Structure formats: C-alpha cells, structure tokens
Amino acid sequence: MPVCEINFDGIVGPSHNYAGLSLGNLASASHAGDTSYPRAAALQGLAKMRHNLGLGLTQGFLLPLPRPNGAFLSAIGADGSEDRRLMAAAWSASSMWTANAATVSPAADTADGRCHLTPANLVTMPHRSQEWGDTARQLRVAFANPAHFAVHDAVPPCFGDEGAANHMRMCVRHDAPGLEIFVYGKTGGAFPARQHEQASRAVARLHRLDPARCLFVEQNPDAIAAGAFHNDVVAVANERVLFTHELAFADPEGTYAAIRAALPEAEIVVVPADAVSLADAIKSYLFNAQLLTLPSGDPGSGPGAGMGLVIPLEAWEHPRVRAWLDGMLASNGPIRQVLPVDVRQSMANGGGPACLRLRVVADPAHVDPRFLLDKAKASRIENVIAAFWPETISPAELGDPELAERVVTARTELLGVLDLAELL
Ligand code: SUG
After folding, report:
1. What local confidence, expressed as pLDDT, does residue 302 receive?
2. What is the pTM of this model?
C-alpha cells in the first residue's frame, strides 16, 4: 500500500463530561457544570470518521483510556476530602482529543527513515497529565513494527508538551520530505502557554529531524489570551497549504517568509482579522478544521489539488465566518470544498474536528490493522456505543460507584469487539 495520511480519531469515552477543567479554553469554561451526552458525543465522533472514510480517505482510531483513573486517585491520596475537580480529573474523557496524544514525524523527515511518535506529557492540565502513559502503551501496540516506527517516552515534565496540536507539517506531497513547524507559547496573559519551546526542540531532536527543515515559531500571546490554547485553534496546514488567522503567530510575516524560504511551493491562505476577528475564529473554531487532500480531487492540477476543509457546524453557521468561506470558495484557491460536520458535544469542551484526530503519514500496511476503520468495524463500534455508553452525565455524578462500573464495562465491551483486550 502506498504511504498516505491516516487520521486516527479518538473514540469519545463513556465518561465524557463537562467539568470546566481547562483554564484558557473558553468552551470548557462556559460549559462547566452542564450535563453531557456521552453516547451522542461518541456517535457524533463516529459519524465524522464515517464521513471521512466516505471521502475515500484512510481512517484509524484510538481507544478511550481507562477511566475513572484509580491510579491517579490513589497517587493523590484521594479520600473524599479532596477538591471535586480532582475527582473530575480522574474521570475525564479528554484523551478523545488525539491531536494532543503525540507529535508525529513521518519517515520521510527522519534520519533513520522511521516514523517517530512522541506522546505529549500534557503537564499543564492535571486531567490531561494522566494520559501519556496509557497513550504510549496504546501507540506501542498500534505502531509496534520497529522497522517502521519509533515510539518515544514523553519529554520530561519540566517542559510542557501538547503534541500535534502545536505542530504543522508542510510538504509537496505527504510522502515527500516535509518542513516541520513547531509552534510554542511564551505567555498568554491570564492563560497558560501550554506548549514550551524546549519541549518542541526536544521532540525535534528525538525524532532526528534535519534542523534545516524545522521551524520553531512563537504563537501570538494575544491569541493565547483570546482563548487559542493550542495553535490548531488558529491555524492548520496540509501539504503545501497553510490556512491561518492573521493573528496566529507572534511574527506572522517572518513566519511566512521562513516557510516560503524552506518550501517555495507553499501557499499561505491568511484570514484577516477584519473579516474574521480572533474572537469569531475562536468561537466558531474555523481553523480547528481538517484540511485534507481529497482522493477525488482534481487530478492533473498538480500535487495537493482538491483540498477539502472539514469544519465544525458552528463555523458554517457563523455569519461572518460563512461569508468569508463563501468568498474563499468563489476565489477558486487551493481549498475547493468546505465540509461541515456535527461534533457539538466535543466542541462544547473546546475540541473541534482537528482536535479529534492524530495524523500519521505511513503505509497503512505497517499499522496494526485493529486500529484501522472500515464500514463493518464502524457498525460494530456503533453497536457497543449505543448499548453501553451512558446517555447523560452531570458533573455531580462523577465519583458515583455505579456509574464508574458502567463506564468501565462500556470500555471493556469496546475493547472486546475490537480484539484489543490486551489494552484493558
Ligand atoms: O485540552 N478540553 C481539551 C480540548 C483539547 C482540544 N485539542 C486541540 N485543540 N487540539 C483541552 O483543553 C476540557 C475538559 C473539561 O473541562 O472537562 C478539555 O480538556
């Protein structure tokens, strides 16, 4: 099979809830305390995967992590007197946002010709800092072939790393050598800068990237302060195209010039703040989109032709964003299609279509097939979700032993139908 981009979506876990745990993530804060719909959330996520599979793309998935996390609760000596937010942290289904699972460098970029993956330590947020050990375990099963993959440990916790959400790769074609762009934050006003420069640099070294084909770029502090807690809330790249808000980077012109110097084929689509303000971009999640090279795209017009932008419905329904998108489509630029999807349950926690997927450029034949989706497997997953995922969870229920048992059973059933019980 040829090397291609495989999107690994996180299956939304049965404990999905709104606890308002992520400072700096405006959606998480504004939905704190709401009742969540885990079953609907997981079905929305699955529908997005089916949608992309239907475009003729290769689709994979990653499993929800074990929750509630008893090891975390014992490590903090939980006895009921602890802050409720710590209980909520142990129940979080945040591993659904697999853009934060790891940073991935395809084989074409690395000195040893293997695809390298480094799980993100996610240390800035207590609920997310618990993910990486189980994520690494899972990645080591999915990408077990040592001839083709290297799965590292996370970088040390003194450097915050948020994974692929702060990493973009540009290239003429997915299987060609790429320019890897690491976006870090220094400050974000009242909000934390979650990606540290030294974490990005460590990942680039671990992945044995060519320093001449790496860029380290500072995120605009104003963007973080406005709620862009990850760079993928304000920019997304695919092959030769960068789709970005004008205010995404601290030094936009310097960033574009460096990209063009390293990749003369680069096409940079900048959305100006007077058309879509930073606030509108963050509210609508226009940029938290999957920018995809469509297999059905215009053959013959060169590499990267026929790109589609999978956006959340919230962006499609936003009048100023819609006006900009209509203009973009009419201009016949590199992005030819806009494809809205409904991931509202995830969006209410600040996770759009791009947050829900981890991109791995590789030959699908080298990946453990149990992590790849087809129609029949999608139906099996759907049946388990429909039968076992709780319909609703209110934050007050977190900690309830009966609900804990339901959540554990739901995940066990899922792993069973996927023949992945070794990850229990
Ligand atoms: O880390 N939300 C996630 C959203 C992650 C989005 N990912 C990307 N942009 N790639 C976060 O802030 C909310 C959980 C809560 O409040 O219950 C949360 O963790």
Report:
1. 46
2. 0.97
